[in-house]
Design goal:
With 381 residues, this protein is α/β, with parallel strands linked by helices. Helix content is 60%, strand content 12%. It holds the Pfam family KAP_NTPase.
Length: 381
């Protein structure tokens, strides 16, 4: 193992055990090393994820499931008619699934609000990972898990209120249709116009409630959270809108509740790893906006977020000291960075083993590189 391998493996083990939400300052003195170091950390976390999954299966627990294929129908059924419950058995689960999201700040450097790019990237990737349909149904019918009372191992509780309302609407709809058919087809009653009006009114009112629910799901399916936030930020008067930030925070809270629901459904713990890179290439005010977004929008106490802030502190600190966010902190960028970062992790200069590994990778031929990529893909599958 090289020195970089040891450091990255230590960080990955730490991230598998740390409580969330957490902001990790991944500090490296050279910016060109960050990509390779992040790749090492991601690979180590995937190995730990596979190891825990195998250990959980050996302990005899039920296999995890995913919201794809047949699992999608099961997820939709549970979303509509059941409420998830966090049991003691769920809290004892050790298997993890990491959802890696790469946010390159340089790609959004031209935007007026760089922090909005961070939030929209988060919303888009979570929607892409789980699918648009489960998230759309959750917006309308889903509910956040509640904790079990005592040592009950029952993870799903029937939504009696939802079922009663649905059956009531279906019964009223059937009654309205029956009255309408009788008024239209039975001889001697066709002349009673009032009966036709009553039947059509009852059927239309009950049917409209079902149609509105379906339209709400369709609206959330077509209009993603990313588009909603982009519409808010594109508005000319968004800065003066009352509760603008609370609307965006509300969208993030829905995502957090959805992730909590999917934890119980998939029978594993979920962690969203946001790898923030190229932040030291942006303008100072936009850099401060990203820190504010991390602090105010994405730091819910129950959020399963791990922010991996990959920056060079010697570059980012002078950048922060040029902004207006340093007022009251004695113009000390390191003090501001220490307050924003929960877990600082510094990687020193490249050691001789890491240098040899870099030289070997640099002098390899194209065929050797292609063979390594193919072999790595085969090993992953």
């Amino acid at each position: 193992l090289t020195e970089d391998d040891v450091y990255c493996r230590c960080l990955s083990r730490t991230l598998c055990h740390t409580a969330t939400p957490v902001t990790v300052g991944f500090y490296a003195p050279c910016g060109h090393r960050l990509e390779s170091l992040l790749a090492k950390v991601t690979a180590c976390m995937r190995e730990e994820m596979a190891r825990r999954e195998a250990a959980e299966l050996q302990r005899g627990h039920r296999k995890p499931r995913s919201p794809h294929g047949w699992g999608l129908l099961v997820a939709l059924w549970l979303l509509a008619f059941y409420e998830p419950v966090v049991t003691e058995g769920h809290l004892r689960r050790k298997n993890l699934e990491f959802i890696f999201i790469r946010f390159s700040a340089w790609e959004f450097a031209g935007c007026d609000k760089l922090w909005a790019g961070l939030v929209t990237t988060l919303c888009h990737r979570i929607r892409q990972h789980f699918g648009a349909l489960p998230l759309s149904v959750f917006h309308v019918l889903g509910s956040r898990p509640r904790f079990a009372s005592g040592f009950s191992q029952r993870e799903w509780v029937l939504k009696k209120g939802t079922c009663l309302r649905l059956w009531g609407l279906l019964l009223v709809l059937a009654a309205g249709l029956a009255i309408l058919l009788v008024a239209l087809l039975v001889p001697g009653i066709k002349e009673h116009r009032a009966l036709k009006v009553v039947g059509s009114a009852v059927a239309s009112l009950s049917g409209s409630s079902l149609v509105l629910g379906a339209l709400s799901i369709l609206k959330n399916f077509l209009v993603s959270e990313k588009k909603k936030i982009e519409r808010l930020t594109d508005s000319d008067r968004f800065a003066g809108q009352l509760g603008f930030m609370s609307k965006i925070r509300g969208e993030v809270e829905v995502l957090v509740d959805f992730l909590a629901f999917m934890e119980v459904f998939e029978r594993r713990r979920l962690r969203v790893v946001l790898e923030i890179t190229s932040l030291d290439l942006c303008y100072p005010e936009k850099v401060a906006g990203v820190f504010n977004a991390m602090a105010t929008l994405l730091s819910d106490a129950n959020a399963p977020f791990i922010f991996l802030l990959a920056v060079d502190p010697s570059v980012i600190v002078p950048c922060l000291e040029q902004t207006g966010c340093m007022k009251g902190l004695a113009d000390n960028g390191y003090l501001y960075l220490n307050r924003a970062v929960t877990l600082p992790f510094s990687i020193p200069e490249m050691g001789w083993r890491s240098r040899l590994r870099s030289v070997e990778a640099a002098i390899q031929t194209r065929e050797d590189l292609m063979y390594r990529i193919i072999a790595g893909n085969v090993a992953k599958t």
